[in-house]
Every structure is written in structure tokens, then in C-alpha cells.
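Take a minute with the sequence and C-alpha cells given here and flag any C-alpha cell that looks odd. Thanks in advance.
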Amino acid sequence: MKKILEEQGKTVHCATGRMEDRTAVEKDLDEFKPEFVILAAGKTGRPNVDWCETNRPETLRANVIGTLNVVDCCYLRKIHVTNFATGCLYHYSDKHPVGGKPVTEEDPPDFFGSFYSVSKGYMDTLLLSYDNVCTLRLRMPISDDLSHRSLITKLSKYPKLINIPNSMTVLYDLLPVALDMTAKKTTGTFNFTNPGAISHNEVMDLYKKYLNPSHSWENFTPEDQAKILACGRSNTNLDVSKLLALYPDVPEIHVAMESCLQRMVANGVKHGDAT
């Protein structure tokens, strides 16, 4: 985002302190006097969200206290905030089954299987009280490289995968949209993924087709997966009708995913480049 903005001729300042430190947040805001604040910070844990289960105060300090600090300090200064949040607040259920009705922004969070998702669910609800925030619910973000934080890279390293369709966010398609929403001072909550849902198998089929023909994996059930994890994982399909009403050209996820792999090939990315 910083690179995109600078290419547009914008001046971008990065925070100098932790968002948990309200004094540091206020210092940055008063020194830089920004027109907009983009909040992409949060505690997801390393190596994964299992970390949050045994580090709950640290998780809350970032995902709730820290986020509220930034939003509230900006509110008092009449500064717009674009908050990159998560759509991992839901799971497939009788009301929203696989292949059924997707989850809308008005549906209350119903996935409490991980403390990470619980903390983000608190925040999602609390931010509804502020009128200076645009909350964007990303899911399983995918970049045009093999960064270790990209879903494609993560899946390529797992010997076993569950095969359930999910909403996903291809950053190439949606980061420019986020920045346009920021410039327009859009507010409210948006499911922020490409339309549709794609399975992990389908993603790896494309990875195998374009980057690593010898790649292989096995499938296992969510029940088997739960045996090796400290907490559950969200699997869901988000309704993006609200986003598409403003940005109808966001490509469907299968199209977007294949285009992403094609760009990676065109840019010289190879499967051994995973970091």
C-alpha cells in the first residue's frame, strides 16, 4: 500500500510506536497530521493463530486495545481510518451451509473456535460505534509472490489440506480498491474478498499447473485437522454484494486466482522462491 500511494505522489508516514501505546499514537497523529490513517496491524501469532490461545492478554492488547486506541484518537481529531480486519468471524452452519447463502455484514460473528477470531469479533462489533472507520474484512490474503504470509505459500508447505471452499482476498485486485475507498472516506463494514469461494485443492491445482508440476498433497477432514491444532479454523463464504455495488469489476475468485498465478509466472516467480 505504501508503494502504491508513493507511486501516486502521496506522502506516507509509518507509525513510530506501538498502537497499544496511546501516547505514541497521539504523538504520531499530532506530528504528522495525516488526512487518512490506514491500520493494517494486528496480532495473528507466530507461527500461526494457535499462539493466541496461550497469549491472550497480548492478543487483546493488540487486537482490541491497540485498535481502539488508533480509531479513538483519530475520531477525536476527525481523521478517517481504513481498518484492515478479518472475515474469519464465521463458520459454515445450518444457516450458512457450504454452497448455501453467504454471510453478510449484518450477520453477527458466530465462530468462536479460536481466541484470535474471538478478539477480532469483539473489535468488529465495537467499531460500529465509530463513524470515522471503514472496516474491510479480508480473508486468506494472497499476494503476487511467494511471501511466507501469502495463502498460496502456506498451502504449498502443508502435506495435508482440508478441501472446503472459502472466501479469499487477492491483494492485487483489492488493495487499489481499499485505497480508493480511503480517498473517498468510505465508512462502514465491508466483506472484502473476491466474489465466490474456492477450495484449497483448487488453489493447489493452479499452483501445480503454473509453478510446481511435481507438487502433491493429501486431504484430511476438519476433524483430523483439529487433532493437530490448538484451536479451530474458520471456513466460510462471505457475501460481497455491498462491495460489488461500489466496485462491480472485482473479479470472481477462480478467475482472480488463475490471473494471480499467471502474473507470478510472467514476473519470473518460481516455486523455490518461497520465503
